[in-house]
Amino acid sequence: MKGHFPTDKFSTLATPFYYYDTDLLRRTLAEINAEAGKYNGFTVHYAIKANANPKILNIIRESGMGADCVSGGEIEASIKAGFSPEKIVFAGVGKSDWEINLGLEKDIFCFNVESIAELDVINELAQKAGKTAMVAFRINPDIGAHTHANITTGLAENKFGIAMADMETAIRHSEQLNNVQFKGLHFHIGSQIMDMNDFMALCNRINELQDRLEKSHIWVEHINVGGGLGIDYQHPNRVPIPDFKGYFATYAKHLKLRDGQKLHFELGRSVVGQCGSLITKVLYVKQGTAKQFAIVDAGMTDLIRPALYHAFHKIENISNDGPVGTYDVVGPICESSDVFAKQAEINRCQRGDLIAIRSAGAYGEIMASQYNCRRLPAGYTSEELI
Ligand code: LLP
Fold first, then answer.
1. Are 241 and 314 contained in the same domain?
2. Residue 34: how many CA atoms within 13 Å on its side-chain side?
3. Does the beta carbon of 71 sit less than 6 angstroms from any atom of ligand 1?
């Protein structure tokens, strides 16, 4: 055992693999329930895209959360994990017909619609199926969250959502259609957001919009503000649970909900990010001309975030307590971006040492690929390794 890692159990497992601390996951879920539970009408959906490992999904479903899906595959995964369809929301800028049909067949809670063209298709397919689809419009609030450009989604230039200006037209259009029913508004401004002012800005935007809709006598049953709450990648041990208290309080304070209106959230990273680590083995230590490399058996195929977004993940040598060395920690993939960290200060490495790449529970295992014909990494929970 080193820190909270059962290294003795790890020694029998083939690397690389994801390890999930389910005790931390359960504590995180309990905190979300406690903090969201303080406010009337707050409902949390888990954004399946962050991690769809069935063992993780089961634990999340048990906590009572709904599911936020962005594909037919995610709807299937959530139903398989026991999420009830009336707690499933389905977003996505390009929904295929089979995916819409699946949502209709399962009678999901709501389709988050991203264009008028999509609304027409949902109406047509619902008519064929003899159903009425519940719809919310995803509005592009044109707010830039202070996060990485690739994960900002609420700007006018992004492909997501319907422009604020087209909002009323979209709602009026839905009223003309027989097989869709307008229920709510959906927003999502980006991911890994640490500054509560960004969420406050969203609240102000929604307040403006609601005032406008009220003047047009349009009633909105629910508001869905998406996800986006960030985690502390620098300090996974010190801050294992994100600031849910501040997060929900920001919405409670700044968003003017109308009587009876429900507020939905779609949290991904903040739910599962800190409970997961990618465990990998040092294959070789190589002294290059300018640098020392720790070459590990995990690559960007197992965890693409550093290569794709230059994301920081804390790296620990969990086999060795000795003095510290400086390494570029790199994988075996034939790409020069296959680097987990440059000049990382970690306990000195030798062949066979286990390395934990921390805060990898969200957008880790699920984004793994088989490039270079690699095997997909396994995922183990702390419960099954006892
Ligand atoms: N709702 C919508 C509509 C979304 O697009 C997303 C994430 C979420 C909810 C969940 O956001 P979260 O609570 O996890 O921030 N692969 C990137 C992150 C992409 C996020 C995409 N949308 C990464 O590894 O950082």
1. no
2. 11
3. no
Q: Which residues of the chain have pLDDT under 50?
A: none
356 token code pair: 């934990």
Indicate whether 209 and 303 sit together in one domain: no
CATH label of the domain that carries residue 349: 2.40.37.10
Distances (CA, A) of 254 to 104, 194, 201, 205: 34, 17, 9, 10
Same domain? For 258 and 324 the reply is no
Q: How much is the pLDDT for 144? A: 61
pLDDT in tens, 237-293: 999 999 999 999 999 999 999 999 999 999 999 999 999 999 999 999 999 888 999
Q: Is residue 138 part of an annotated ligand binding site? A: no
Residues 231 and 380 in one domain: no
Q: Are residues 112 and 230 in the same domain?
A: yes
| Domain end call among 224, 254, 272 | 272
Q: Beta strand pairing status for 292-296 and 88-90?
A: unpaired
> Where a domain ends, among 230, 245, 272?
272
Residue 265's Cβ-side half-sphere holds a number of Cα atoms within 13 Å equal to 28
The best mutation among 49, 232, 278, 369 to test binding of ligand 1, ranked by most ligand atoms within 8 Å of the C-beta, falls on 49
**Would you call 275 a catalytic residue per the annotation?**
no
Q: Please check if 103 is assigned to a binding site.
A: no
Q: Name the residue range of residue 287's domain.
A: 7-17+275-385
Q: Is-above-0.90 flag for pTM? A: yes
| Cis-peptide, bond into residue 323, ω within 30° of zero | no
Task: Tally the domains of the chain.
Answer: 2
Task: State if residue 153 touches ligand 1 by the CB under 6 angstroms criterion.
Answer: yes
Residue 321 confidence (pLDDT): 86
pLDDT in tens, 120-144: 999 999 999 999 999 999 998 877 6
Query: How, if at all, do strands 110-113 and 324-330 pair?
Result: unpaired
Q: Is the CB of 138 under 6 A from ligand 1?
A: no
What is the ipTM metric for this complex? 0.99
